[in-house]
Inverse folding.
């Protein structure tokens, strides 16, 4: 019940514009063709930023049981490029938002979600978003 309530509050208080921004960036990267690895990552982060409570970001290789293009050496190179170009400042933005949320007791759960988003924004290639229930199985 609390996950639903917090997700609705998150959505209304900024989650929808944040997700739309990530999806717009994903469309931009998809159009450039060379940005396709980053495009997929933008869509994953957009999904995560739309409805974050009850979800967790994990490596796809942990879910699939095997490596793929995004979880191997090419994914590592893509993550290094992402980190240098965009990842570090996106993470700083989410960490700043987390600190602002931690000012009040009511904002603490929202701050935790911003920290999760900051972590995936650092190196998103090869990551996917699953429910916490799927991880415990």
């Amino acid at each position: 019940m609390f996950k639903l309530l917090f997700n609705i509050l998150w959505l209304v208080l900024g989650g929808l514009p944040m997700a739309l921004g990530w999806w717009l960036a994903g469309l931009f990267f998809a159009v450039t063709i060379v940005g396709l690895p980053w495009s997929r990552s933008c869509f994953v982060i957009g999904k995560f930023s739309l409805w974050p409570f009850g979800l967790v970001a994990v490596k796809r290789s942990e879910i699939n049981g095997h490596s793929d293009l995004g979880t191997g050496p090419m994914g590592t190179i893509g993550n290094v490029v992402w980190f240098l170009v965009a990842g570090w400042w996106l993470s700083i933005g989410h960490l700043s938002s987390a600190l602002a949320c931690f000012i009040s007791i009511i904002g603490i759960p929202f701050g935790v979600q911003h920290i999760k988003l900051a972590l995936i924004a650092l190196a998103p290639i090869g990551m996917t978003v699953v429910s916490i229930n799927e991880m415990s199985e």
